[in-house]
Specification:
The complex is a heterodimer of chains A (about 240) and B (about 375). Chain A is of the alpha/beta class and about 240 residues long. Chain A has helices at about 40-50, 70-80, 95-100, 110-120, 125-130, 140-150, 170-185, 195-200, 220-225, 225-235; strands at about 5-15, 15-25, 30-35, 55-60, 65, 80-85, 155-160, 190-195, 205-210, 215-220. Chain B has one domain: ABC transporter involved in vitamin B12 uptake, BtuC, CATH 1.10.3470. In chain B, about 65% of the residues lie in helices and about 5% in strands. Chain B has 15 helices and six strands. Chain B has a two-stranded antiparallel sheet with strand order 1-6. Chains A and B meet through helix 2, helix 3, helix 4, helix 5 and helix 6 of A and helix 1, helix 8 and helix 9 of B.
C-alpha cells in the first residue's frame, strides 16, 4: 500500500456530494499536485487528509493508519501539516511569534530554535522582518511565513492549499521554488492548485479533479503536455 | 518603500554554503523592554511608597479599590485581550469569590487564608460550568451567555438564604496569618501601620507580583502565544496543532480564578457585600478598563483600570452623569485611538526619542537589502 492512500472516498456536505469515489496515492518524498476548477473538490480532499472532514465511504490511510481515527489537531504531532488557503497567518503576532507557534506541538525548545533558524536561512526576508507583525507583510511574504510556520512543526507530509492564490507571477515562481526546496530536504508535499502551469513545473505526479473524482493522472511532464489539460487549464488554443 | 522581493530565486533560496551566515539583525525590542521593566518596578515602588507620602484613610481606601480594579482588569485582559473571548459577565466570578470566602469566614469559621483554596476551587468549577458548553461557540454567543450568567449569579445571591439575600453578608473578617490579625496593625521600626494600610500593601503585592509578574509572564510564553493565535485565527490555530477548546477554557478559568481572588480581597476591603456590588455595570466598567487601556497590553489595562476606578472620585459632582461621560470618552477613544491608550504592540508609545530611534533602525534594516544581493556567496 502506498504511503498516503485514498481509496474510493465519498464525502458529503449535508446532501451535497463533494467527493465521489475519489482514489489517489502519494509516495514518501513526492510532490503530488491536485488540479481542478472551483468546486471540483480540491480543498475537500486536503481537508480529508488533514482530518477536518470525514469520509462517509472509503478509506484514507497514511502509513497504514486510518486518518479518520486521528483528531485534526493531533495530526500535526503525527507529521501532517496543512498550510491553509489564503495563508491565514496570525496577523497581530510578529513573524517570529508565528514561527514559534509552528512549534507548538514540538516539546524540545532547541529543536524549535533550530527549525526557526532553518526557516530564516531558507527565507532571509522573514529574518529581516522578524519583529514585524504578520499582518503587515506582503502577500508573498505571508505565504512564505505560512509555509515557514508549517515547517517549524517538522512535517513529514506538507499539505498546501492554493499557495499561489493572489500572488504576482514572479512571487508564484518564488513560492514554487520554495516548495521544491522544502521537498528536496525530505518533506513530501501534496499541493492543491488552480494554477496548473506553476504546479506542474514542480510536481512529480499530478491528478486532475473534476466533480469530486479523478479524471486524469500522470507525471507532471505528461500532464503538462496532455492536450486535454492544455485545453482546460493551461489556456491552450 | 515597497516590499519587492528580489527577482533571482537565489536571493530566496540560500545555498547550503551560506547556511552559517549570521541572520541579518533587525532592530530588537530588548533595550526598550528593559526600560519598560524599569518603569514597572518604579511604579511598583511608588505604589509601596504612597502610605509614607500620605496616610489619609480616604486616599488609601480609593487606592485599595483601584488596585482591586487593576486586578480584575488584568484577569479580564487574559480572557478578552489575549484569548479574544468577549466576556460580558466577568463580575460573576468576582461575586463567586466574594460570596464563597464571605460565607466560609462568617458562617463556617474559616480564616481568609484557609478560604483561598476553596475560592479557587469554586471558581474553577464555575468557570467550567459556564465556559464548558459556551466556549465551543464563537464569541458573540459567548458574550450573550456570559451576560446572562452574570445576572444569574447576582439574582441567585439575592434570593438564597445562605448569601444573606438582598442585605448580603456583613462582618467579613480581615486576613490573619498564624494567629496575627492584619486588622491589629503592625509596628516596624517605630512606624505604625494600621490595618487599612496593611491591606493596601497586601493587595499591591498580590497585584504587582502575582498579577503583573505572573500573568504577563504567562502571556509571553507558549500558552500566551496559543491564546493570541486562537484570537487571531481559530482555524489556523487548530491547523497548527493547538487544541483550541482547551486553550480557550484555560484562559477562561485563569480569568475566573483571578477574579474570584479579587472578590475575596474586595470582601475584606468592604467587610460587607451585597448583590448590588455585582451588577452588570461593574462588568461593563472592567471591560471598559481593558478596551480603553489597550486589549492585550499589561501597562494599558493598568492605566485603564486606575482611570475607571479613580475618575468617579474626581467626578463626584457629576453624580450619575459621570457614566455618560465615560460612554462619550469610550466612543471618542474608539474613533481616535481604537487600539487603546497603550496598545499591546507598542512599548513606549509616547516617547519621541524612542520613536525616532525606531524609525532610524527601520531605515537601517531596509538599506542593507540592496547590499545583501552583492554579498559574496
Amino acid at each position: 500500500m502506498s504511503w498516503l492512500s485514498v481509496q474510493n472516498v465519498d464525502v458529503f456536505y449535508g446532501r451535497v456530494k463533494a467527493l465521489s469515489g475519489l482514489s489517489f496515492d502519494l509516495e514518501e518524498g513526492e510532490i503530488v499536485a491536485l488540479l481542478g476548477n472551483n468546486g471540483a473538490g480540491k480543498s475537500t480532499t486536503l481537508n480529508l487528509v488533514s482530518g477536518i472532514v470525514r469520509p462517509t465511504a472509503g478509506t484514507a490511510t497514511w502509513n497504514g493508519v486510518d486518518l479518520a481515527k486521528i483528531r485534526a489537531h493531533n495530526l500535526v504531532a503525527e507529521g501532517i501539516v496543512q498550510v491553509p488557503e489564503g495563508r491565514r497567518i496570525f496577523s497581530t503576532m510578529t513573524v517570529h511569534e508565528n514561527l514559534q507557534l509552528g512549534g507548538y506541538r514540538v516539546t524540545s525548545k532547541a529543536v524549535i530554535a533550530e527549525r526557526i533558524e532553518h526557516a530564516y536561512t531558507l527565507m532571509p526576508r522573514l529574518a529581516e522582518r522578524r519583529d514585524q507583525q504578520g499582518g503587515t507583510l506582503s502577500g508573498g511574504e505571508q505565504q512564505m511565513l505560512a509555509i515557514g510556520r508549517a515547517l517549524v512543526s517538522g512535517p513529514k507530509l506538507l499539505l498546501l492549499d492554493e499557495p499561489s492564490m493572489g500572488l504576482a507571477p514572479l512571487m508564484v515562481n518564488q513560492v514554487m521554488e520554495l516548495i521544491k526546496a522544502v521537498n528536496d530536504q525530505g518533506t513530501s508535499v501534496l499541493v492543491v492548485e488552480q494554477n496548473a502551469k506553476a504546479a506542474l513545473r514542480i510536481a512529480h505526479r499530478a491528478y486532475v479533479l473534476e466533480t469530486g473524482t479523478i479524471s486524469l493522472s500522470g507525471t507532471g511532464a505528461e500532464l503538462a503536455a496532455d492536450p486535454r489539460v492544455v485545453e482546460a487549464y493551461l489556456g491552450g488554443q | 518603500m515597497p516590499l519587492v522581493l528580489k527577482e533571482s530565486s537565489s536571493e530566496l533560496l540560500v545555498p547550503p554554503n551560506r547556511h552559517q551566515m549570521p541572520p541579518p539583525a533587525p532592530f530588537r525590542w530588548r533595550s526598550e523592554k528593559g526600560a519598560l521593566n524599569v518603569l514597572g518596578i518604579a511604579v511598583f515602588i511608588l505604589a509601596l511608597a504612597v502610605p509614607f507620602i500620605t496616610a489619609s484613610p480616604y486616599v488609601i481606601s480609593i487606592l485599595t479599590a483601584g488596585l482591586i480594579y487593576v486586578m480584575l482588569a488584568l484577569g479580564l485582559n487574559v480572557v478578552v485581550g489575549y484569548a479574544g473571548l468577549l466576556d460580558l459577565g466577568y463580575v460573576a466570578f468576582f461575586a463567586v469569590g466574594a460570596y464563597t470566602s464571605g460565607i466560609l469566614t462568617t458562617t463556617f469559621g474559616f480564616s481568609m487564608l484557609e478560604a483561598v483554596p476553596v475560592t479557587i476551587l469554586v471558581c474553577i468549577v464555575a468557570g467550567i460550568i459556564i465556559g464548558g458548553p459556551t466556549l465551543r461557540l464563537r464569541s458573540d454567543y459567548l458574550a450573550i451567555v456570559t451576560l446572562g450568567f452574570g445576572e444569574i449569579i447576582r439574582l441567585t445571591a439575592r434570593n438564597l438564604e445562605i448569601t444573606g439575600g438582598a442585605t448580603g453578608i456583613s462582618g467579613i473578617p480581615s486576613w490573619s496569618f498564624f494567629g496575627w490579625d492584619m486588622a491589629d496593625g503592625l509596628v516596624i521600626a517605630g512606624i505604625e501601620f494600621n490595618g487599612k494600610i496593611l491591606l493596601y500593601y497586601f493587595v499591591a503585592l498580590v497585584v504587582g507580583l502575582v498579577g503583573v509578574g505572573g500573568i504577563s509572564r504567562l502571556s509571553r510564553g507558549k500558552m500566551g502565544r496559543a491564546w493570541k493565535a486562537v484570537r487571531d485565527d481559530e482555524d489556523a490555530a487548530e491547523a497548527m496543532g493547538i487544541n483550541t477548546y482547551f486553550t480557550k477554557i484555560t484562559a477562561y478559568i485563569i480569568g475566573a480564578v483571578w477574579a474570584g481572588l479579587a472578590g475575596q480581597l474586595m470582601g475584606t476591603y468592604l467587610s460587607a457585600i451585597s448583590p448590588t456590588s455585582f451588577t452588570f455595570l461593574y462588568s461593563a466598567l472592567i471591560l471598559m478598563a481593558v478596551v480603553l487601556g489597550g486589549m492585550g497590553s499589561t501597562p494599558g489595562v493598568i492605566i485603564g483600570a486606575l482611570f475607571v476606578s479613580l475618575a468617579p472620585e474626581f467626578l463626584r459632582e457629576f453624580a450619575e452623569w459621570r457614566y455618560v461621560l465615560f460612554g462619550v470618552l469610550l466612543v471618542v477613544t474608539m474613533i481616535f485611538r481604537p487600539q487603546g491608550i497603550w496598545p499591546a504592540n507598542a512599548v513606549f508609545p509616547w516617547s519621541p526619542a524612542l520613536a525616532a530611534r525606531r524609525a532610524r533602525r527601520a531605515k537601517a534594516t531596509e538599506a542593507p537589502e540592496d547590499s545583501a544581493a552583492g554579498r559574496p556567496a
